[in-house]
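Operator note (shift B, R.M.): manual run for ATPase requested after the automated queue skipped it. Running by hand, logging everything below so the morning shift can see what happened. Input copied straight from the record, untouched. If output looks odd, do not overwrite the archive copy; leave it for review.
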Amino acid sequence: MKYKKERHLFPGGNTSKGFHSFYDYILPQQEANRILCMKGGPGTGKSTLMKKVAKVFIDKGYSLEYHHCSSDDKSLDAIVIKELKLAILDGTKPHMVDPKNPGAVDEILNMGIALDNEALSLNKKEIMEIQSIKSTNFNRAYNFLASAKSIHEDWSRLNSKALIPSKSSTITESLISEIFSGNSKFGYGNERHLFATAYTPNGVITYAKGLTENFNKKYILKGGPGFGKSTILKDIGKLAQRKGYFVEYFHDPFIPTRLEHILIPEISTCILTENEISQCSFEGKVYNMEDFCDNSIISTLKTEIEYNKNIFYELTNKAIELIALAHKVHAELETYYVKAIDFSILDKIYNEVIEKFEKYEK
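Run finished. Output pasted below as returned.
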């Protein structure tokens, strides 16, 4: 199957372990024709330039990936022009990406040359104070997410007590039988790791429905934490790779070592979870994890589970509130940089990028 012309996802996330990045998977070095690593302060037009470049090439009929910023989902961290194997990405904090193969694959695109540094230095004190407040808000947000993780672990342990392993193992067996049924390719399949969902200033945002819209076969694992959904996804994903298929792993935005969804595009198949983070529902064949549990245990633990659930959402909502505050402060910071920008230089950079990228069409 072919992906949609436009795909929206997150290359990084605000998680219970702090900021977590999958930037290396935006466009792997060995596949890329050219990667531009953008450098420059806030308000220097990085996201705006990416949106403008993306529009030029999507209007030409190319497929575009829009990699959104988890700290501002209306802003972009990267774009990828799939057919031309070209990418532009924001290489500034917190990602701090530098060229890995300078000149051969990637290069720095310095947006800072459009800044009047002398004008900025006049507001040094205010800029540093705002940066400090922004950093404090993010650190507090991560502390609340880390606190929520402890509650989430207890919630998971309670749910796992009810799970009947002999029954739940049949889910994996059923999925293997339905998905593969003898299909395989030669060699070991590649993999890609990203986020479909993120904690953002606008709450929990997920692009999972759009990412899987064109898939023919959808299997859904429904249930809260502790029911082994991530393990099932991991087992099926690794089996698909052993059978030669490319697999996209979309990670849990709360605990990034776990999985939220997997996509196997070559056989138009995806396995999705309906979970406590995104609270997103899908159409497809549903496996309700509670059907593989001892209902009497779930009933006995119901009060404790509800208690954990309420505290979990209270803590994560506080984290979202702090991420929103950090975003608001960041907007104040941008005003200083916007005032110090020479927009004619930004226009020149944009034209140079278009010219550079159009050479790969030939």
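Quick read of the result: Residues 295-339 form the longest helix (45 residues). The mean pLDDT is 94.
Leaving this for review. - R.M.
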